[in-house]
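for the recovery benchmark. tokens below, seq after
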């Protein structure tokens, strides 16, 4: 009985096709996970940039209010009269805050846009000369976000920890 050595060296075509199919499936899953991670990174970066922009805007508002000699509120927003006599106006429209300040024959405008679930406004206490920047988040939007996060967290454990008896 003679053994054919050529048959034992190498892989068959079927083995190669199976290996290529498995490796391409693994690569497809890996690419999908990397794509999802990059999407989450971009979203998180956007949220961080929005939070930083809002914090800068709120800090500028605080400084302007502390340096103001007088303030006037209206339905559109708030006007502050600075120490130098310049008027700085703040406008709150829906979820967008705008600051307008004249500077050397130009109008300097800065704007920050919040999440669409937020509304912004100003509260002025004339007796104590206090102006407050008010940001409200719709309760149902906040509840929906919390509910989605809880559902996602429970979804991770639901198959391993719950039984049919627990559901009833």
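predicted aa per position
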């Amino acid at each position: 009985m003679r053994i054919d050595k050529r048959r034992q060296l190498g892989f068959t075509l079927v083995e190669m096709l199976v290996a290529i199919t498995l490796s391409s499936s693994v690569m497809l899953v890996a690419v999908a996970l990397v794509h999802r991670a990059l999407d989450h990174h971009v979203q998180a970066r956007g949220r961080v940039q929005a939070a930083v922009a809002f914090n800068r805007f709120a800090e500028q508002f605080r400084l302007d209010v502390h340096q103001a000699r007088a303030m006037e509120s209206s339905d559109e927003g708030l006007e502050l009269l600075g120490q130098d006599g310049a008027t700085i106006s703040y406008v709150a429209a829906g979820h967008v805050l705008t600051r307008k300040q004249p500077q050397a024959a130009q109008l300097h405008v800065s704007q920050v846009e919040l999440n669409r679930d937020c509304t912004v406004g100003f509260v002025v206490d004339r007796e104590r000369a206090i102006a407050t920047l008010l940001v409200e988040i719709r309760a149902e939007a906040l509840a929906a976000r919390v509910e989605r996060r809880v559902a996602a967290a429970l979804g991770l454990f639901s198959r391993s920890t719950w039984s049919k008896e627990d559901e009833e």
